[in-house]
Amino acid sequence: YVPGLDKGKGLYFLFVKSETRTPGGLLARPVLTSYYKSEHFKTRPYDPYNVYTSPNEAILCPDSFQSMYTQMLCGLQDRHQVLRVGAVFASGLLRAIRFLQLNWRQLSQDIETGTLNQKVTDPSLRECMGKILKPDPELARFVRHECSKESWEGIITRIWPNTKYLDVIVTGAMAQYIPTLDYYSGGLPKACTMYASSECYFGLNLNPMCKPSEVSYTIMPNMAYFEFLPHDPNSAGFTRDSPPKLVDLVDVEIGKEYELVITTYAGLCRYLVGDILRVTGFHNSAPQFHFVRRKNVLLSIDSDKTDEAELQKAVENASRLLREFNTSVVEYTSYADTKTIPGHYVIYWELLVKDAANSPTDDVLKQCCLAMEESMNSVYRQGRVADNSIGPLEIRVVRNGTFEELMDYAISRGASINQYKVPRCVNFTPIMELLDSRVVSTHFSPALPHWTPERRR
Ligand code: AMP
Q: 425 burial class (0-12, 13-18, 19+ CB within 10 angstroms)?
């Protein structure tokens, strides 16, 4: 689809994540971490179509700062050879841009002198970079000149002028990042090539240069045994007497939505992946699917997936801190704010303060932010602590009556008063504007939540 990719390199920001152990002592890690650490990757034969700017040592460095720093340095040094820029998910590529915004001065310094910043301490990485780096004052001047400009619009094509496309997943929850990617890349095509999970590889996009909204993934029937649970948002659910009827891969119907069910070679049996897919067509007999959304996911910034029950629990735990101030949370909703890099969770709170003389202070509300983060699942906390892929959680306190106004607005647009439920997550612009215009104070989590690679039992 893109000619000449064998004539240059790919700048891919690839990372390994910390491994964890299950309570039974088994090693657990995401699929890409397994892959990068495997001999398949480390000793891959030379392939002119897959030459990366990042050396293996940089990709495999467990410290995310050192890994990103050296990958960026190599990408800058090879800037004319770079033909595509990518990361697994769109959020990862934006994090790299943010990293460049914060670190271009040190990076330029290293380029100028051909030396490596002392913050990179990993011995094998230092040794490997020692062989790659060479002084290039002209390149250093160029990087300083471009990065010190006020506007970063089109920065990707300014620094890597031969980039033909971005290789990142922008379907599903990642679609929220498309406008920002377009801003930084001047609207370069975005190729979503694959649909996969740690449990199983699912499918490929056979038309990778299509628009993000038109992406369909063709399921590869040899990857697992695929079955589909018809998804009907209006159904009351399944009961013992009327169990769900699973549909085989060959029997799915165009236009219908299904939940993906897999039986894998590794031993998962009729495992519910949690993804909702819509059939868009067939490639030969293999159905093609549009990724609709993840089931029950309210908030997602990176690989975190927070559902309604988790958010509810987090709000409950945090609001305990308000008791001594005779204050309670009357209503709440949430928003995944991806305007900041990294993105962060925003929780809107309407409070009932019964004793105005003793209302909760900024400090207390900051502690509420942290308490909420402590309640989130381990993938969220890992994103905050180890991967730096999620920013501090924010509480925006809105003035009294705001949620009633929200309801009035929904009713004015046709919602029924009987059926109205406060949305636990919002992203519709008029609603966001309404909420933001009623904010009386904002508070950010002051510290990192607790996280270790050992799983909580
Ligand atoms: P994980 O199990 O953490 O590796 O994440 C797998 C999940 O990421 C899938 O079940 C999907 O929800 C999501 N995902 C993976 N690939 C895509 C894609 N191409 N488009 C949208 N979501 C995706």
A: middle
Inform me whether the pLDDT recorded for 236 exceeds 70. no
Q: How many CA atoms lie within 13 A of 117 on its CB side?
A: 19
Output the residue whose Cα is nearest ligand 1's atom 21: 172
Distance in angstroms (rounded) separating the CA atoms of residues 185 and 167: 12
Question: How many Å separate Cα 145 from the centre of its chain?
Answer: 30
Residues within 6 Å of ligand 1 by CB: 30-31, 169, 171-172, 192, 195-198, 273, 275, 291, 294, 303
pLDDT in tens, 186-195: 999 999 999 9
pLDDT digits (tens, 9 = 90+) for 66-125: 999 999 999 999 999 999 999 998 988 998 998 999 999 999 999 999 999 999 999 999
Give the closest residue to 54 by CA, choosing from 40, 74, 27, 35.
74
Distance 196 CA to ligand 1 centre (A): 6
pLDDT at residue 145, as a whole number: 98
Residue 407 has pLDDT above 90, yes or no: no
Provide the strand spans (E) within 52-92: 82-89
Give the distance (Å) from ligand 1 centre to CA of residue 262: 14
In the chain, the N- to C-terminal Cα span, in Å, equals 48
Question: From CA 370, how far away is CA 379, in angstroms rounded?
Answer: 16
Give me ligand 1 centre to Cα 53, in Å: 25
Q: What is the mean pLDDT of the chain?
A: 93
pLDDT, position 279 = 97
Instruction: Provide the pLDDT confidence category of residue 413 given band limits of 50, 70 and 90.
Output: confident
Residue nearest to atom 10 of ligand 1 (CA): 197
What phi and psi values does residue 225 have, to the nearest 5 degrees? -95, 115
Q: Which of 119-133, 387-401, 424-438, 443-457 shows the lowest per-residue confidence on average (mean pLDDT)?
A: 443-457
Ramachandran area for residue 244 (φ above 0: left; ψ -120 to 50: alpha; else beta): beta
Q: What gap in Å lies between CA 291 and CA 275, rounded to an integer?
A: 8
Split at pLDDT 50, 70, 90, the class of 238 is low
- Contact call for residues 231 and 247 (beta carbons, < 8 A): no
Do 221 and 286 contact (CB within 8 A), yes or no? yes
Dist. CA 385–CA 41, nearest whole Å = 27
> What is the enclosing helix (H) or strand (E) of 344?
strand 344-353
Tokens (6 digits) for 267: 């031993």
Distance from C-alpha of 356 to C-alpha of 352, rounded to nearest angstrom: 10
CA distance 390 to 408: 33
